[in-house]
């Protein structure tokens, strides 16, 4: 027998709900202001959120951006701050009385030190200190319009340096402390000059408004009832684009409904007349305003919340100028390895066509953009598929002139005008399973598709409007930040041989140049998509991190999906992991080498399955489970998986004893005891141990790890325990639907109660194999 024991150096993990885990004491970013900067610039910014105390690093994905932490502060509730001062005064008075009586004042000194530590980190403007209480209370006066929000009360003042050669575009910023790694947060590296709003700027006709250069990027915050104004100059005939980033900087705010920033922008002329207005862009809440300048002169741009809400985390970035902006592309995708000719529509575009040859190893989607005078336009998603493709050909608005389709096929088309519909025909056979899907809204098309299948043997038309894959916990799968699931899908077994018709139109009878779609018609195409969470976690040299992978099974696929790491650095180890038939989730672990020091690691996890006799692989997209409101949740993609180094050891480490064969055998229907060991570095006496997210058929019982008993007794005859060492066991059992020969890994976790939460301390995944029952 040999002991399989790897160091697990992790902050505690809390099981928030089935299939997801988050660090209970990890920092959380609520806002960053400003949320980006120009290439070659250095600027100070503020991060607001929770649990930033002791922050050791802030990093941004990609190369060329470095961050220095300047100081940590807390913005207190005005009532709480006044109470701190009262507590300080009362404590000083009590201390004085005790001292005069000759009593011990040690407890008073401890209490004073605690109060002073809290006061020392209070958020105050430059030049204000606690020697001027009148000024302090002016700063912290209660505002009836602005409710104190503890979820953004912690502050990190940082200095950001953006290299001249830093690649422009969206990045992700994270904070980490010895207790955990934060959520990823939007950060943009820009190419245009940038400015920050300067209050007061509420009056669009008032003097002293900040005049911004054109083109440029404006950064600001909208407080309750606030309206920000900026002046700019434009020439007659200029085509000005005002592109607002607001909601996409902070996509979800779970603490209020409605709690998100709904930006509204307007332009006024020199006489104060409103000449342009916008409150959204297509189905996106962030507005994009197109302004054809009627006369040369000075104009005023305003931004506010649609119903005059406001908060510190209502931040925005506005790009303004004669900027290139793509409003639509056609087609929305193409087959990998083929030549492509993409038509572009929009404003200030340097070209209206993009041509080239697609790679043979295309991903599911890429992005299309253009560059003009050093500024890159917005990005439009472009799908790359493996099936044959064609273009829609009019007229095809009825069964009698339906466009023939040979399966499998992807059709790139448009609903050309309101009331239009497109009809396609194909030859089907009895018992054949056909999959029909539109990919449109996911590619930024405004169309809200509905598809209808008719044909021989179908008693009535088979129709689908919105396809919303979600589980029983209201977790939406596969849509990311798309909250209106407007794409359609159906899977149908054909009852007879003959000609079938697929009709596609818009549910609201809308149409136009931008209403493009991709329509896939094929035999059932078993496949899968994968997401893994969390998107980031801390790991120490020799430490182990636990992840969850979730599969969306498509077109009836129910096979095994093996997971592997395609870009794991040398010295790191990933446990064997698989999503078993009949299941859609699994856990796995990654263990770092002992010599890893201070280096962020970003491996890619890939799922591989055998489908129709061939190997199919897809990356597991790193995501974070985020709430849209009080109920609906979404898997929000991150740019990359992040393993951030940390040196703080875990208070509880857990390992399992593995036989020399390297695998624990589980006889079907019979319990097996697995021995545990590890280390306990706190006053904790022990913890319950269980299997985390077990596959169907696996159960556990009597799992426990506690302090290891020493062989000798204490002098008084009582039990003696080994210093910091732990031992225990757990009973594992495999039942149907598992069968002999099944192999997979299990993650064992020690469960420690912390208030109302369960804190999980994982062990490296253990390999198991189901075998035939042993004889009595």
What features would you describe in this structure?
By secondary structure, the protein is mostly beta strands. It is about 5% helix and about 50% strand. The strands form twelve sheets. Strands 1, 2, 3, 52, 53, 54, 55, 56, 57, 58, 59 and 60 form a twelve-stranded mixed sheet that branches. A hairpin with a 5-residue loop joins strand 17 (about 265-270) and strand 18. Helix 1 packs antiparallel against helix 2 (about 105-120). The longest helix is centred in the N-terminal third of the chain and has 23 residues, at about 80-100. Mean pLDDT is about 90; it is low at about 1-25.
Quick description:
The chain is mainly β and 776 residues long. It is built from three helices and 60 strands.
Low-confidence stretches: 1-23
Q: Tally the helices.
A: 3
Give the C-alpha Rg.
30 Å
Largest sheet: 12 strands, mixed
Q: Which structural class should the secondary elements be placed in?
A: mainly beta
User: What is the terminal-to-terminal distance?
Assistant: 23 Å
- The total count of strands amounts to 60
Percent of residues in beta strands: over 45%
Mean of all residue-level pLDDT scores? 89
List keywords for this structure.
single chain; about 775 residues; mainly beta; twelve-stranded mixed sheet; ten-stranded mixed sheet; 3 helices; 60 strands; disordered N terminus
């Amino acid at each position: 027998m040999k002991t399989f024991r790897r160091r697990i150096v992790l902050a505690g993990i809390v099981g928030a709900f089935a299939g997801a885990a988050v660090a209970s004491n990890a920092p959380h970013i609520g806002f960053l202001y400003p949320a980006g900067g120009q290439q070659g610039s250095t600027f100070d910014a503020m991060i607001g959120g929770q649990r930033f105390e002791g922050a050791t690093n802030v990093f941004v994905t990609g190369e060329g951006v470095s961050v220095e932490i300047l100081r940590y502060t807390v913005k207190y509730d005005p009532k709480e701050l006044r109470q701190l001062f009262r507590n300080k005064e009362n404590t000083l008075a009590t201390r004085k009385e005790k001292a005069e009586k000759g009593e011990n004042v040690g407890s008073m000194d401890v209490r004073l030190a605690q109060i002073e530590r809290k006061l020392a980190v209070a958020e105050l403007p430059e030049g204000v200190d606690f020697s001027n209480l009148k000024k302090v209370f002016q700063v912290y006066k209660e505002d009836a319009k602005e409710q104190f929000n503890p979820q953004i009360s912690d502050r990190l003042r940082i200095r950001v340096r953006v290299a001249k050669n830093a690649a422009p575009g969206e990045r992700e910023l994270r904070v980490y402390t010895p207790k955990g790694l934060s959520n990823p947060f939007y950060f943009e590296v820009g190419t245009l000059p940038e400015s920050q709003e300067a209050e007061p700027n509420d009056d669009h006709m008032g003097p002293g408004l900040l005049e911004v250069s054109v083109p440029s990027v404006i950064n600001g915050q909208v407080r309750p009832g606030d309206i920000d104004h900026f002046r700019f100059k434009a020439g007659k005939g200029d085509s000005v684009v005002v592109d607002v980033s607001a909601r996409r900087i902070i996509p979800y705010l779970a603490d209020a409904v409605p709690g998100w920033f709904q930006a509204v922008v307007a332009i006024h002329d020199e006489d104060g007349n409103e000449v342009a207005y916008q409150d959204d862009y297509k189905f996106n809440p962030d507005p994009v305003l197109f302004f054809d300048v009627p006369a040369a002169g000075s104009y005023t741009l305003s931004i506010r919340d649609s119903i005059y809400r406001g908060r510190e985390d209502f931040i925005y970035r506005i790009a303004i100028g004669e900027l290139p902006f793509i409003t639509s592309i056609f087609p929305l995708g193409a087959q990998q390895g083929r030549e492509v000719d993409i038509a572009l529509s929009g404003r200030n575009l340097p070209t209206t066509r993009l041509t080239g040859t697609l790679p043979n190893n295309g991903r599911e989607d890429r992005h299309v953009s253009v560059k003009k005078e050093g500024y890159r336009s917005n990005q439009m998603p472009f799908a790359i598929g493996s099936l044959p493709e064609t273009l829609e050909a009019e007229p095809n608005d009825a069964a009698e002139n339906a466009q023939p389709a040979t399966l499998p096929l992807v059709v790139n088309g448009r609903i050309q005008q309101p009331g239009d519909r497109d009809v396609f025909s194909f030859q089907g056979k009895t018992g054949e399973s056909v999959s029909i899907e539109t990919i449109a809204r996911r590619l930024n098309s405004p169309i809200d598709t509905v598809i209808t299948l008719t044909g021989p043997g179908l008693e009535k038309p088979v129709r689908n409007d919105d396809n919303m894959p979600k589980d029983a916990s209201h977790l939406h799968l596969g849509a990311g930040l798309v909250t209106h699931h407007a794409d359609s899908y159906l899977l149908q077994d054909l009852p007879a041989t003959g000609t079938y018709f697929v009709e596609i139109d818009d549910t609201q009878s809308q149409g136009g140049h931008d209403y493009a779609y991709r329509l896939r018609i094929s035999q059932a195409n078993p496949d899968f998509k994968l997401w893994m969470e969390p998107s980031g976690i801390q790991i120490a040299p020799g430490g182990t991190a636990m992840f969850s992978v979730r599969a969306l099974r498509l077109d009836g696929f129910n096979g095994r999906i093996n997971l592997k790491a395609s870009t794991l650095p040398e010295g790191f180890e990933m446990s064997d992991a698989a999503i078993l038939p009949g299941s859609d989730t699994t856990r796995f672990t990654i263990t770092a080498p002992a010599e890893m020091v201070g280096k962020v690691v970003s491996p890619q996890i890939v799922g591989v399955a055998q489908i129709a006799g061939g190997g199919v692989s897809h990356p597991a997209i790193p995501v974070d489970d985020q709430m849209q409101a009080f109920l609906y949740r979404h898997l929000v993609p991150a740019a990359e998986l992040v393993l951030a180094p940390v040196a703080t050891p875990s208070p509880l480490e857990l390992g399992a004893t593995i036989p020399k064969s390297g695998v624990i055998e589980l006889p079907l229907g019979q319990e097996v005891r697995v021995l545990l060991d590890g280390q306990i570095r706190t006053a904790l006496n022990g913890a319950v141990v269980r299997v985390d997210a077990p596959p169907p058929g696996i159960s556990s019982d009597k799992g426990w790890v506690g302090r290891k008993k020493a062989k000798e007794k204490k002098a008084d005859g009582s039990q003696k325990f080994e210093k910091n060492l732990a031992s225990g066991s757990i009973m594992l059992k495999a039942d149907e639907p598992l069968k002999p020969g099944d192999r997979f890994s299990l993650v064992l976790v020690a469960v420690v109660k912390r208030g109302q939460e369960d804190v999980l301390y994982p062990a490296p995944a253990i390999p198991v194999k189901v075998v035939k029952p042993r004889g009595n």
